[in-house]
Amino acid sequence: MNALTLKPLAVRIPEEIEKEILEVTKREKLDKATVVRTLLEMGIEEWRKQTALELLRDGKVTFAKAAAMAKLSLWEFADLVKQRNVEWVRYTPEEIEKEIKEASVAESK
Question: Which of 89, 91, 97, 100 would you label with 43, given CA atoms 20 to 30 Å apart?
Fold first, then answer.
């Protein structure tokens, strides 16, 4: 972590999650607070990506806006969209054909 101001956070967690955290502390040889911070950061990062993908898929945000929400570059987000098989372009074959025709007409001018 960079020189961030750390704020205290008290939460109640199920015993099973505590066991998981303790397992990570042993495996990674880190203290509990560091492990919890790292897992929270990972969870928030994944939540941002998942939310951005869902909004893009549902047509509620543009590709660029979704990438920004996910805190990824356009190229990184394009890779993520491909990896997760998210369908976000909603063109019918007729619309695609029309777009191609218009593009080729514009190109020939």
Answer: 89
Whole-number Å distance between alpha carbons of 49 and 52: 5
Q: What DSSP character marks residue 71?
A: T
Measure CA of the first residue to CA of the last residue in the chain; give whole Å.
54
Prediction pTM value: 0.75
**Contact 70/80 with Cβ under 8 angstroms?**
yes
Q: Which amino acid is at 53?
A: L
* Residue 12: how many other CB atoms lie within 10 Å: 4
Q: List per-residue pLDDT tens for the chain, 109 residues long.
A: 457 899 999 999 999 999 999 999 999 999 999 999 999 999 999 999 999 999 999 999 999 999 999 999 999 999 999 999 998 887 777 877 777 777 777 767 6
